[in-house]
Amino acid sequence: QVKLVESGGGSVQAGGSLRLSCVASGTIFSFKSTTGWFRQSPGKQRELVAIITESGTNYAASVKGRFTISRDNTKNMVYLQMSSLKPDDTAIYYCYVPNSWGQGTQVTVSS
Fold first, then answer.
1. Given pLDDT bands bounded at 50, 70 and 90, which one contains residue 27?
2. How far apart, in whole angstroms, are the C-alpha atoms of residue 27 and residue 93?
């Protein structure tokens, strides 16, 4: 079982930046293989934002070129650097490893 705790959410104006962090604890083998960020807006399904595996990274088309996922396995941390934020990026962002989710952190982007 992996426990994930996100931080770094907040409110920002369009065009601004935020950096989300997620720390993992517990049985973290899965953390080191696949880690990702998802988001969910009211009335919408949870969607993949970015994922990092042993093979590399993948991004949703809507965030490619604006968001960067990175991971520090020595600290059991995963990050999501978000730049050029848009109102459509407003959502609760969740850290993910297979079979485990964080509690989420709210990101609000105003126009």
1. confident
2. 22
